[in-house]
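We modelled each protein-ligand pair independently. The example shown here corresponds to the flavin mononucleotide entry; the chain sequence is given first, followed by the ligand as SMILES.
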Amino acid sequence: MEIEVFFLRLLSSLALPYCLASSALPPSSFLSSSLPLSLSPYQLRYELIGRNSERKADHLRICLDEDVQFDQTTSGLERYRFTHCCLPELDLNDIDLTTSFLGKRLSAPLLISSMTGGTEQAKTINFRLAAAAQQYQLAMGVGSQRVAVEKPEVASTFAVRSVAPDILLFANLGAVQLNYRYGLDECCKVVDLLEADGLILHLNPLQECVQTRGDTNFRGLLEKITTLCEKLPVPVIAKEVGNGISAAIAEKLIAAGVAAIDVAGAGGTSWARVESERANDPRQRRLGATFTDWGLPTAECITAIRAVAPDIPLIASGGLRNGLDAAKAIALGADLAGMAMPFLQAAHESETAIHALVEILIAEITTTLFCTGNATLTDLRQSRALQLIRQNFGLSTPDFSE
Ligand SMILES: Cc1cc2nc3c(=O)[nH]c(=O)nc-3n(C[C@H](O)[C@H](O)[C@H](O)COP(=O)(O)O)c2cc1C
């Protein structure tokens, strides 16, 4: 994609109508072989930009219509069980789920994970989710804003601040774009568009491998992330997209200056599977199918990262499907629990469905605290009420040094 984007930029930078800029075009053999060679520069620009919007539309359609969950690999949270407390000595009404993350207060430790933007359907989803996040004081991320950089006319599909003035809101870009001519300017642009509190940089090497014409040059990215962390005026958060972040990589990212990590581990939505469904090419379809179950389970990522980085603000996501999963992730050491697919399904249905989802998630987390005898999230984390179910059905507390 690098050459395509370069010539797009070149065309955009020339203060000439696109049709007059044809001499700036590269020999057609330089361009991706799948692009129709008969396109005018003007058509070419819209062909390339159109693919980004098309991709976002495909992602929504496939995630809503197909089974794109991991097949065998689970989040690992089912391996843990809370010790039930039959005498909590608490009033259920006194349970307090409030927390703060990167300096902002949340009424519950929930993040609506980064998903979408760039199309009318995406706009509806983003605005419904943002309004609910505002009402319940939850955190939210939007999907990759690359399409908004390349096609400013769709920027409004991301711009949810108008309906969510107070929430902890995250912008989003693929980290790999830093190797495809994105730099501080583009990062500032996507943050400003959202009036975001932070920028999520997603790391998605497997997805890019399976995606037809994916951006697969990840060389030298850590250094670019370091520079970005130094210069961007808001915190940078590193996130996977469902294949997990190991302790070793988390340490490197923390040393690079990221302010928080979202493990986005395996066990939920499989992006190898989504891209496999989307691909026309049998080779890419097979590649995605082979790697459907690839990745580090979410529970393993949380415990491994907490063992090496006790203080880093940590988001657990990837395969969390209810408030009990969220409470387990928090007991294991996460500060927030993120969910994508459950919120997508609810937002697709209606605003009422999002409210119902948030309320049951809050009820499930509250019930977990009550039935473990913990009044706050901090109490839950310190209680060691969560136990690993050994294969012989014995129980033991999690070993964070594993
Ligand atoms: C429709 C859809 C689009 C997504 N797009 C993005 C994206 O643009 N950027 C990103 O960082 N993650 C994206 N994700 C990944 C999620 O944020 C999340 O990491 C992943 O789906 C695992 O969470 P889940 O199992 O709760 O779905 C997307 C997820 C969905 C369902």
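The pocket of flavin mononucleotide is lined by residues 59-60, 63, 113-116, 143-144, 172, 200, 202, 239, 241-242, 264, 268-269, 317-320, 339-341, 344 (CB under 6 Å).
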